[in-house]
């Protein structure tokens, strides 16, 4: 099972009216840090509502932030846990087998992440092992899927700046693409803001409640996401899981050069395409378990699910990846000089069948695929637009939630 989990490390809501646990308190207007509607508080955490999506702001030590997460999202966490457990056990795995594997998940995680897990377990009504299971919930669900041929079609990236945008500043975007067996998790998405009191950066993540995030931003205007690299590339020895290292990258690094050096110095457990942007530019790192190649662009950069740099000397990539990559570059070229957040959302909303990059319940590998979530981000002013499949985009100003002015 452990080998399967590694092999299937793919590029990995809100309910319209929130239902709160008895521990939550109705917030007073004076405690709000944003103009979003304040729904509830728990200890030093707040829960807001941005359209269809919950937004939680967590402040304190990592354990305290975990407690706030568990208290503010208790209903969603327990609903999502029940759905995942019922679905996966219905496919033949026993709960004992699942939890045995779940206990392996955090073995090599940073202490900060483990402290968040501990805090969540103290207030959510779930155990520490349950929280670890939720963290890998999408992967467990993929393993239980009846899709006969898992296809490494997971995510894409497009960033524009300079002559391609209306004011020269970067506009970045990503699609998180997975099999439609993951679609039910779109009901439990949450935008999570961590504001640690140890001097680390504030960060934002967008993912199903409790699940491993793969889309991160911080209060210095840095952005990191990932795309499946489309090739089997497992490290020869045990290494920490690379995606969970994103917490460290975002908490600890405040400028693009330092972030790049940190990522270059971190050997991944499996190969990835790493999407990176900051207030002035964007680039891609094509990262195997033993080598990293940086790709830049003259105002535009794109990525799908294959290494592009010719020095890799790889076979022709699969059509689903090459077509999305080429479509993104063509769409950016057609919109050169006109790209802002609204135009980027238009580009990202075009289905692959219509010449775009979005999977829209599309046929692939004997199953259906969708862009489970999408984001558009402006690093300079820290403005985010987010959505999940079949739901509307929502704008959120991150700077006041981070607790500092945009850099």
Shape call: globular
Mean pLDDT, rounded to whole units? 91
Distance between the termini: 44 Å
What is the β-strand count?
17
The order of strands across the largest sheet is 1-2-3-6-7-8-9-10-11-12
Detail the poorly predicted runs: 1-22
Explain this structure to me?
With about 400 residues, this protein is α+β, with helices and mostly antiparallel strands. Helices cover about 30% and strands about 25% of the residues. It contains twelve helices and 17 strands. The chain has helices spanning about 1-5, 60-70, 75-90, 95-100, 110-125, 130-135, 135-145, 245-250, 255-265, 320-335, 340-350, 400; strands at about 40, 45-50, 55-60, 155-160, 170-180, 190-195, 205-210, 215-220, 225-230, 270-275, 280-285, 290-295, 300-305, 360-365, 365-380, 385-390, 395. The protein has a ten-stranded mixed β-sheet with strand order 1-2-3-6-7-8-9-10-11-12. Strands 4, 5, 13, 14, 15, 16 and 17 form a seven-stranded antiparallel β-sheet that branches. α2 (about 60-70) packs parallel to α5, α3 (about 75-90) runs parallel beside α7 and α4 (about 95-100) packs across α6 (about 130-135). It is globular. Mean pLDDT is about 90; it is low at about 1-20.
